[in-house]
Design goal:
338 residues; mainly alpha; 15 helices; 79% helix; globular
């Protein structure tokens, strides 16, 4: 009985890398996407648009700063921040504010800071502080660039007007119901309390419905993204990084390209950055640690669900240029490292 010919060694190696990478990315990203869609659904159901907008100042600059600070306290990675940033946009907030949150949350949340500290503990440089400081500076500059490019965009203001009009109509209806309830007896009060309780259960049901719908909707693009990232990673030559790191100018580009292609979760990417770039090139490691949480291959495909391709390409270009400039500015802090 004839047997099938053995596959060439490079195909066997590439297929093994593909399956390992695909499985790892799936286990890393899917739970965070589920968490992000759940939190965004809670915001959509329980937080009125006017309340959310009051948390952000009318000043675009101050609104960006508030979004950066809010991102620090949200313990989810980049896959979970996409639904949240989309919800902020739908609530009528400026695109620059949503972008600031999208960039800052996966970069500076507590899990990312702790994992970076553990990964580079004992090294000659405080990489976790440099990642936090320079990363937030890069996120701020990118959000400012988005604001300058979209300040004439009327989409957000029109959304705010529609939301406010709907809220005024709802408030008016609520006042009418309140006047009617004022004439109710004690039995009516009990009935009203029952309605509030049923309303809570109805809202919880809405949260689950929104979560399941958004998760399944975004999950298709996430699976496509991680599959593409796994395929590219399996075909990437093993020695390509080592050769490029010998040249100071190319090291930062390699760090950014690696972060984009590998598409790692921000809560675990510091360990990969240490193994790939330290101590050969700390600027490349910093570029890797800044750009990866902001944008990567799988996240780009996920964002295509909400952003037009032309805008997404411009967004990616802005992120890459700003992160490269910040990494170059930070290079003197690393002494002789390329």
């Amino acid at each position: 009985m004839s047997t099938l010919p053995a596959l060439p060694p490079w195909i066997q190696s590439a297929s093994g890398t593909f399956m390992t990478t695909l499985t790892g990315l799936a286990f890393e990203t899917i739970p965070f996407l589920l968490l992000g869609t759940f939190v965004s659904s809670c915001i959509h159901v329980f937080v009125p648009d006017s309340t959310l907008r009051r948390l952000f100042p009318r000043s675009r600059i101050l609104s960006i700063l508030v979004a950066l600070v809010a991102g620090v306290f949200v313990p989810i990675c980049e896959c979970g921040t996409v639904p949240l940033a989309r919800r902020l946009r739908q609530k009528g907030l400026p695109l620059s504010t949503a972008a600031a949150f999208l960039l800052a949350a996966p970069l500076a949340n507590p899990m990312t800071v702790v994992s970076t500290y553990v990964a580079f503990n004992g090294g000659p440089y405080p990489i976790f502080l440099l990642r936090l400081g320079f990363g937030l500076a890069a996120a701020f500059l990118i959000a400012i660039a988005v604001e300058l490019l979209t300040r004439n965009d009327k989409t957000a203001s029109e959304s705010v007007q529609k939301v406010e009009a709907a809220e005024e109509a709802e408030d008016g209806h609520g006042h009418e119901e309140h006047d009617e309830r004022g004439e109710e007896s004690d039995t009516g009060v009990l009935i009203h309390a029952g309605r509030i309780q049923r309303s809570l259960w109805a809202r919880l049901n809405d949260v689950l419905e929104h979560t399941s719908r958004d998760f399944l909707d975004s999950g298709r693009f996430l699976i496509l993204g991680i599959s593409t990232a796994a395929l590219v990673r399996s075909l990437l030559p093993a020695d390509a990084l080592n050769v490029a790191l010998r040249h100071p100018g190319a090291a930062i580009g390699v760090g950014g390209a690696s972060a984009f292609i590998l598409s790692l979760c921000s809560s675990a990417d510091a360990f990969v950055a240490r193994s790939l770039f330290a101590p050969a090139s700390y600027p490349a490691a910093l570029m890797f640690l800044m750009l990866g949480p902001m944008i990567d291959l799988k996240n780009s495909i996920l964002l295509l669900r909400f952003i037009k391709p032309a805008r997404l390409l411009a967004f990616i270009a802005i992120i890459a240029l700003v992160c490269a400039a910040v990494a170059l500015a930070a290079s003197p802090l690393f002494g002789g490292s390329t």
